[in-house]
Amino acid sequence: xxxxxxxxxxxxxxxxxxxxxxxxxxxxxxxxxxxxxxxxxxxxxxxxxxxxxxxxxxxxxxxxxxxxxxxxxxxxxxxxxxxxxxxxxxxxxxxxxxxxxxxxxxxxxxxxxxxxxxxxxxxxxxxxxxxxxxxxxxxxxxxxxxxxxxxxxxxxxxxxxxxxxxxxxxxxxxxxxxxxxxxxxxxxxxxxxxxxxxxxxxxxxxxxxxxxxxxxxxxxxxxxxxxxxxxxxxxxxxxxxxxxxxxxxxxxxxxxxxxxxxxxxxxxxxxxxxxxxxxxxxxxxxxxxxxxxxxxxxxxxxxxxxxxxxxxxxxxxxxxxxxxxxxxxxxxxxxxxxxxxxxxxxxxxxxxxxxxxxxxxxxxxxxxx
Length: 369
Ligand SMILES: Cc1cc2nc3c(=O)[nH]c(=O)nc-3n(C[C@H](O)[C@H](O)[C@H](O)COP(=O)(O)OP(=O)(O)OC[C@H]3O[C@@H](n4cnc5c(N)ncnc54)[C@H](O)[C@@H]3O)c2cc1C
Fold this sequence. Notes:
21 strands; D-Amino Acid Oxidase, Chain A, domain 2; 2 domains; alpha+beta; N-methyl-L-amino-acid oxidase activity
């Protein structure tokens, strides 16, 4: 049984059901939906990753699984636009990740500011900046990915309860009872993948996850130089904040978000809409003005979403400390979507085979005790 069928839960539901395991998914909404962390059309997928070779290996396996999901669903889910990472080389270095990513065979290029401007004249860069360009990186259509997991999971025999809120989880020897606002269900194992709502399951699950309100905006570019067929996804820092974004896909506008900052959110609280705070638009616009000035046109659309931060911003994927037939997958800290395909596989491995299939010790919940 899966409590929380968003990016991670729906992926796990797909993996379990296609292995022939009886699977019940329960979600408080009707996924994909706009109340959690997976909506807003697109998510970046990159393979050259900070945090060590483990992440790169996971990203590469995730990529393989995304391709398989595209084949199985017949949906276009991944767009290899490339991703351009801009950084101030006087303050920041990518050297560590270059080394282990190259050893794992990930293609990337290191570029000077002048080389970036020659290839993408729509980028403005101070001379001290350099870039790392990943040609095989790109974007995932996140809502469509969750919809594809759902469709295939149901086709494989999984059951999904939508608009059903898990209120309590109660293990008893070899089974686990899951109480919801619509009734009670029992299973041999339960995955808890509750995104921004983990706190509602305390004291049974107590994880140091802080949910944060995040905004993204779509801006009208003044030329077609930012279209997805000629402009990559991007990340950059300007010394005061870190930003990421997407080329204009199908005329939707250049999408940009700020990775750091944001206001705390607690389950049950109203989530203020985009524009409720002056910085919602102002932060994004000033970042575009500095690096992608031709993209800082009219605000076409804004959206609000949630990050779930752990204290070290690494994930939690582990067994419940007191109940090994309850698995926990949370705290994806604003960078988890690209991994959701492989997180589903890890969780399904643990339930079906009793092992994760990859060394994921770094994601243990015990590191916070
Ligand atoms: C603005 C923004 C931009 C991002 N950009 C990127 C990016 O570029 N690349 C990237 O890799 N990642 C990115 N992320 C992060 C990524 O989207 C998240 O890490 C990922 O979606 C987390 O998945 P999840 O399954 O934990 O949460 P969710 O997808 O939110 O799923 C949790 C589910 O649990 C359900 N639920 C919760 N509590 C209960 C309950 N008690 N009962 C029943 N159901 C419950 C919810 O309804 C929800 O469907 C971004 C996130 C945001 C917000």
